[in-house]
Amino acid sequence: MILNHSRDINNIYFIAICGTAMASLAAMLKSQGYHVTGSDEAVYPPMSTFLESQGIQIFHGFDAAHLDPPPDLVVIGNAMSRGNPEVEAVLNNKIPYTSLPELLKHFFIQGKKSIVATGTHGKTTTASLIAWLLEHSGLKPGFLIGGIPENFGQGFKVGGAQYFVVEGDEYDTAFFDKGPKFLHYLPDVVVINNIEFDHADIYQNLDQIKLNFKRMVNLIPGNGYLLANADDPNVADVIENAFCTVETFGTGIGATWRAEAISMLQEVTAFELLYKNQRLATVRIPLCGEHNVRNAMAAIAVCRWFGIDFTLISNGLSTFKGVRRRLQLQSEIKGIKIFDDFAHHPTEIKSTLKGLRLRYPDNRLWAVFEPRSSTAKRNIFIDQYVDAFSVPDVSILGPIHRPDKVDQLELLNINKLISLLNEKLKVCYYFDSNEKIVDHLKKQTKPGDIIVIMSNGSFGNLQHKLTEALE
Hints:
Blueprint: E1 11-15, H1 20-31, E2 35-40, H2 47-53, E3 57-60, E4 73-76, H3 85-92, E5 97-98, H4 100-109, E6 113-118, H5 123-136, E7 142-144, E8 156-157, E9 163-167, E10 172-174, E11 177-180, E12 189-192, H6 206-217, E13 225-229, H7 233-238, E14 245-250, E15 257-264, E16 269-275, E17 278-285, H8 290-305, H9 310-318, E18 328-333, E19 336-341, H10 346-359, E20 365-369, H11 382-388, E21 394-397, H12 414-423, E22 427-430, H13 434-444, E23 450-454, H14 462-470
Parallel strand pairs: 1-2, 1-4, 2-3, 4-5, 6-9, 6-12, 7-9, 12-13, 13-14, 14-15, 19-23, 20-21, 20-23, 21-22
Antiparallel strand pairs: 7-8, 10-11, 15-16, 16-17, 18-19
């Protein structure tokens, strides 16, 4: 539907309000004076307490009665489908409805410079870096990000009148709009970090994903800016017909923005930054891993496109506090460091583990992984998982989350994965409960060990349970 800020839209209702992005958008609307309510079936902290702190009423469970009297507008989450009682009530009663991306476009992006960070991996960190560097430079951007940048303490900000940063997700928009979210964001500046096969529940192959990235590139205006990862051949395939200015970033000789002499220390990663083969500066970032060097280069390039002085950019990078659950140090107990990371795709996992290995070369590294995402639960990447889990000294696999959601013929074969790792002389264990994982780690870890817990979900609060057990 076509949305506007007309006076007849006051009461806005969210179906599935407790997702990070939905809750953030609800809070943005509330801050602008709209009356906002919503429902979800999984109402628990931290999202429930966050929404309550914003003065937003949440209904537990889905019921058509929640829509009587009808609101002016309903925002339907992309996990909702036909058969949901509230979705059916919306359709039966002709209540105006929309999706999160469409509402975000019309209420918060339109009329601003839209900066969209995309890619299979790294978009949350890249969007957070861009938002912080713009903020640090006094440009007061608005943003909506799928994680929580620690510099802001929340994943959203309405911002000023000129800039809006958004994490551009290639996942579908809603049951009534199966195109990717990022096609809605009116992009002026786009970062493409990388493109790989993911989201096996909605995409059949890599070509389908690349087609949608091509469609997104085709939306960038002629006076816009496209910044693409030169190290990824899949990205090169989708930017060929761009109408805007195109620059690249990476570690290869042909990149417009290039990193050389990358060195990783425990507190920072340093590299030499070149632009069009001319050395600009030595850059230091308080982040770990070569993938974060690329994220930082992308953020630097975007800020330079807007004319921000490099000294301001450099100072902003040094004060960046990271993103919650993106290789975040959760605790340090008796000399054992526990990191929390959102990685779930094998490429992300390998990048995270390689970064930690370089950061702590003399420490024993443990990787603890929950196969949770639609892709991670499938056998399609078993060889890549073998490669990723060859990096740490010890790997632990937790139970597959909701295995009933995947055909048994496609389900990740845990026994085969362990066997393949053992053939490479790598130690890997499987435990069918978090309690057993915690018990094993409590007995087997020692001072100096590094533990990274990886899942794109809660992992049953394993991070905190382990911290309590070690204490």
